[in-house]
């Protein structure tokens, strides 16, 4: 019997950004197929400036090199804020496994909070390391760059589903996204994971789409439809895009959210690994109701409508 060795698709986004209607439709169709088959794809020519990404990884490295006590002063406080520093083993992406061997720093949308009652501000306020003033500028520039790139991807998703181009973009315009810098600390040579511990336990992402930039170390693994784990090997110049549970629900499983994890790698485990994830979340009030072109007699709507805010809060509270 012939076996087909399949890998996570690499899609050239250039024709979507600069091409004619036919070229844009072809890119959108490729994304739809990849989202159906894998829930994951790499995007080349994604439009994010390389200089910004280089600067962001440098800023991340400098931030995580701060003394632990300084980082803890910026600790993550609540799911409703979802900002700040998350220490090693603090989070379990797979709630049945030990805490993840990673640390993280979350950034949300930066807003003018002067008109907000003081008691509510901590929930909407980013936390910044006072000893690194340039860190804030870089993180916010990266946030903006990710919003732009994510919106283009959301336009392609809309095109793939015969929706008005701005359908998803409009329901993300409050930018309830989370930018997350991640560091996976070095592990001792010969390190053997105990009780299924890993750098990040198997999970699906909660939101609509995730953009993931990874360094050259590797370790990200994606589950195939038949239950095997495949390496999402770093490919320079690309961003990994995956669809989250909310998008799966919205599209009635036409776009799938796929379990993935960061395993302790066989090589380079004594090196730290850095990645940057941008989790896109629709506006709190956005109603996540099965999209019409995603259901028919054979695939009737699988979920009742829910607001994005309610859904995401439930998922986040379960992780900590
Ligand atoms: O660091 C990575 O490669 C993946 C991280 C991830 O999947 C997550 O934080 O949701
Ligand atoms: Fe993830």
UniProtKB/TrEMBL annotation:
User: If you read the UniProt record, what top EC class would you report for this enzyme, in one word?
Assistant: oxidoreductase
Iron keyword on record: yes
Gene3D superfamilies membership: B-lactam Antibiotic, Isopenicillin N Synthase, Chain
Its keywords, alphabetically, are: Ethylene biosynthesis, Iron, Metal-binding, Oxidoreductase
Identify the metabolic or biological route this protein is part of: Alkene biosynthesis; ethylene biosynthesis via 2-oxoglutarate
Its cofactor is: Fe(2+)
Occurrences of domain Fe2OG dioxygenase (ranges): 175-282
Which Gene Ontology MF annotations are present? 2-oxoglutarate oxygenase/decarboxylase (ethylene-forming) activity; metal ion binding
EC nos: 1.13.12.19, 1.14.20.7
| GO BP terms | ethylene biosynthetic process
What is the reaction catalyzed? 2-oxoglutarate + O2 + 2 H(+) = ethene + 3 CO2 + H2O; L-arginine + 2-oxoglutarate + O2 = guanidine + L-glutamate 5-semialdehyde + succinate + CO2
Family note: Belongs to the iron/ascorbate-dependent oxidoreductase family.
| Name this polypeptide is given | 2-oxoglutarate-dependent ethylene/succinate-forming enzyme
């Amino acid at each position: 019997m012939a076996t087909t060795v399949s890998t996570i698709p690499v899609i050239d986004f250039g024709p979507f950004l600069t091409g004619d209607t036919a070229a844009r439709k072809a890119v959108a169709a490729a994304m739809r197929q990849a989202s159906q088959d894998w829930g994951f794809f790499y995007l080349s020519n994604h439009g994010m400036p390389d200089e910004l990404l280089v600067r962001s990884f440098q800023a991340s490295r400098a931030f995580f090199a701060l003394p632990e006590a300084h980082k803890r002063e910026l600790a993550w406080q609540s799911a409703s804020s979802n900002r700040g520093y998350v220490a090693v083993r603090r989070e379990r992406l797979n709630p049945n496994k030990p805490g993840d061997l990673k640390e993280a720093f979350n950034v949300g949308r930066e807003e003018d909070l002067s008109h907000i009652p003081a008691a509510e501000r901590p929930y909407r306020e980013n936390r910044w390391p006072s000893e690194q003033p340039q860190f804030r500028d870089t993180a916010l520039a990266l946030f903006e760059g990710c919003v732009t790139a994510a919106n283009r991807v959301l336009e392609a998703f809309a095109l793939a589903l015969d929706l008005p181009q701005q359908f998803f973009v409009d329901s993300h315009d409050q930018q309830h996204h989370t930018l997350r810098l991640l560091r996976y600390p070095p592990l001792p040579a010969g390190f053997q994971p105990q009780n299924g511990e890993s750098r990040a336990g198997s999970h699906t992402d909660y939101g609509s789409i995730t953009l993931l930039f990874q360094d050259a170390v590797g370790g990200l693994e994606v589950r195939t439809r038949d239950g095997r784990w495949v390496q999402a090997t770093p490919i320079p110049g690309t961003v990994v895009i995956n669809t989250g549970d909310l998008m799966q629900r919205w599209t009635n499983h036409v776009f799938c959210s796929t379990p993935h994890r960061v395993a302790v790698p066989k090589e380079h485990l004594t090196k730290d690994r850095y990645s940057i994830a941008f989790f896109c979340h629709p506006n709190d009030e956005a109603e996540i109701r099965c999209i019409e072109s995603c259901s028919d007699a054979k695939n009737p709507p699988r979920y009742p409508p829910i607001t994005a805010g309610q859904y995401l809060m439930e998922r986040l509270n379960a992780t900590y």
